[in-house]
Amino acid sequence: MSKVPALLKWIGNKQRFAETIISYMPEQFNNYYEPFLGSGAVMAQLLYQNSTTSTPMFTHSYASDILPFLIDIFNIIKYDPQQIKNYYSKEIEDYYKDPSNKYNEIRDRFNSNHNALDFCLLSRTCYSGIIRFRKADGYMSTPKGPHNPIKPETFSKRVDLWHDLIKNSTFSTMSFEECMDKAQPGDVVYCDPPYTHSQSIIYGAQTFNIETLFNKIAECKARGVYVMLSINGTRESNKKDISITPPIGLFEREIFVNCGTSMIDRLQNAGQTMQNEVVHDKLLLTW
Predict the structure, then answer these.
(1) Is 90 annotated as a binding residue?
(2) Strand, helix or coil at 150?
(3) pTM score, two decimals?
(4) Pairing of strands 226-235, 188-191
(5) Domains of the chain, CATH where assigned
(6) Confidence band of 91 (pLDDT split at 50, 70, 90)
(7) 192 marked as binding residue
(8) Torsions phi, psi of 214, nearest 5?
């Protein structure tokens, strides 16, 4: 195995690029912090690589997000993986029989109680893994995806793999500011915040402020923390600049990472396949 398979289907998932991102991290550092956890793809890949090296890269990983039901998923996988495997198996077997009605049932149930297990199901069944919430009332409004979710047997194997990988990691519900304040000299912080040009529909992104993040990165850099930031760079095969301009001197290096086509664009354009909508992320480093 070279790439850790995705547990959640998630917009902006960095699974395909995780190894590239990790390759720019220091060869050895103290602890790892990921304040915008999302699907956890980079963290999982880092943990896998750390477990297969003779000399560990780092000591401990701390992951957080503002979505409590997302963090609950990872803690369930860490402490009670059989619970989520059983739930997925039962619900997805029913889903296969009547996808449209079952999807609406799961989504309505989640919107009424924000159950982490239903949130996991939605990530695997909604359109392109786009977890879209209405700003007015927080209602998860993404339509059903056209794909069949992965089989329970496949999901179960992935849960077992992730359980082994994350059993010594710490997962917390908190803001990115709180998480980054915990990082100490010699630690690495990897930030993968909402894209500033297209992800305002994502839960929590409505209040996200890139300038606040820049200020927090500057604080981390000043006390000797290594910070990496994935953020929007260019689209339309590098013809259109959609990047943000960070404060002068905040980052020492800038790398472009090819991220393929934008799933948000596809949803916002009635699911049509977009031509020449290749997006490149910027990977910015403070050292």
Answers:
(1) no
(2) coil
(3) 0.89
(4) parallel
(5) 15-66+172-199+211-285 (3.40.50.150)
(6) very high
(7) yes
(8) -60, -40
Q: What share of the chain is helix, strand, coil (3-state, %, to 5)?
A: 40, 20, 40
Which distant-in-sequence residues (6+ apart) come within 8 Å of 220 by Cβ? 180, 183, 189, 227, 286
Q: CA of 242: how far to CAs of 83, 151, 195, 237, 239, in Å?
A: 42, 37, 10, 12, 10
**SS3 state of residue 118:** helix
Can you give the pLDDT at residue 67? 94
**pLDDT computed for residue 234 by the predictor:** 55
pLDDT tens by residue, 180-201? 999 999 999 999 998 764 445 5
Distance CA 238, CA 80 (A): 45
pLDDT score of 187? 98
Q: Is 162 annotated as a binding residue?
A: no
Which amino acid is residue 136, in one-letter code? Answer: A
Query: Cβ–Cβ contacts within 10 Å for residue 285, how many?
Result: 15
Is 65 annotated in a binding site? The answer is yes
